[in-house]
Amino acid sequence: MTRTTTKTSTKTTTEPRPRDGYFQWSRDPAVGLFAVLPLWLGYEVLRLTLAPAERNGAEALISDVMRPLGPSGLLILRVAFGLMVLYSATIILRRQIPWLRVTLVTALEGLVYALMMGPLAAGLEGMTAEVLQAGGGGGSSLLVRDLVGSIGAGIFEELLFRLILLSSLAFLFMRASVAFGMPKAVGAAAAVLLSALSFSLFHHIGPGAEPFGRREFVFRSIAGVVLGILFVLRGFGVCVYTHTLYDLHYYLNEQ
Fold first, then answer.
1. Structural domain includes residue 65
2. pLDDT (0 to 100) of residue 254
3. How far apart are CA 116 and CA 76, in angstroms?
4. Residue 162: partners with Cβ closer than 8 Å, 6 or more residues away
5. Contacts of 107 (CB under 8 A, 6+ apart)
6. In a domain, 11, yes or no
7. Measuring CA to CA, how many Å separate 57 from each of 7, 27, 160, 225, 231?
8. Most exposed of 22, 30, 56, 148 (fewest Cβ within 10 Å)?
9. How far apart are CA 170 and CA 175, in angstroms?
10. Spatial distance between the Cα atoms of 220 and 200, rounded to a whole number of angstroms
């Protein structure tokens, strides 16, 4: 009698990796932060060398928050940003993400959204106005100020109102939605709306702020909603480039 042994081969199953590609990479916070690095460096060089008096309101607010730390407050902020960029770089290298190509496509995607955002916000603002029955130097130096202002608004306003405020509100409101038995989308929508209203109101508060106007407030609120949706769906980098390029397009058309 012969004894037969049956060998069973065990296959090692590995979990499928998430699909890589531009739309997945660009939504990664580390990739988005690294994609914004060229704008940050350009802003610092232009502001410090050509327009030292130019400072975005959101940057001023962040600087005021850091003021209790003394003269080293801004240095701490820059060091913290540098450490975040270095950490992002390690993630990008580990995942072998083609960061230069992703950055260029992110800027191009932001340009497309920037050209769409103005007409979209203006059209929705006009519809809202109807419902509410509601009826605003030298060439090269002006260009530099507009460029610095556009980049500063794109970086610091998106950092403050989308990356910090919207993310925090979304975390709180989505947890509250689940606690009350509502879909998470309700909390996310509330976070987008509240951050957009805060973003619009910010432009009318503080010394040197623009006088309050209902049409301007509604327009910026709608633009804030659009940017908030972009932040949720496409990430921080796309949002910053969209905001920056929209502001620059607006300033150039105003000249």
1. yes
2. 67
3. 37
4. 195, 227, 228, 231, 236, 239
5. 35, 241, 245
6. no
7. 71, 27, 11, 20, 21
8. 22
9. 8
10. 5
Domain extent for 191: 22-135+137-254
* CA 215 – CA 12 distance, rounded (Å): 62
Looking at the chain, the whole-number percentage of residues with pLDDT higher than 90 is: 32
Tokens read off for 114: 């920037």
Structure tokens at 74: 């801004």
Provide the whole-model pTM: 0.80
Exposed / middle / buried, residue 169 (Cβ in 10 Å: 0-12, 13-18, 19+)? buried
Write out the chain in H/E/C secondary structure. Answer: CCCCCCCCCCCCCCCCCCCCCHHHHCCCHHHHHHHHHHHHHHHHHHHHHCCCCCCCHHHHHHHHHHHHHHHHHHHHHHHHHHHHHHHHHHHHHHHCCCHHHHHHHHHHHHHHHHHHHHHHHHHHHHHHHHHHCCCCCCHHHHHHHHHHHHHHHHHHHHHHHHHHHHHHHHHHHHHHHHHCCCCHHHHHHHHHHHHHHHHHHHCCCCCCCCCCCHHHHHHHHHHHHHHHHHHHHHCHHHHHHHHHHHHHHHHHHHC
Q: What is the pLDDT of residue 123?
A: 66
Rounded Cα distance, 148 and 54, in Å: 7
Ranges of residues in the chain whose predicted pLDDT is under 50: 1-18, 130-139
Q: Domain for residue 9, yes or no?
A: no
Question: Would residue 7 count as lying in a domain?
Answer: no
Q: Which amino acid is at 236?
A: F
Q: Are 125 and 218 in contact (CB under 8 A)?
A: yes
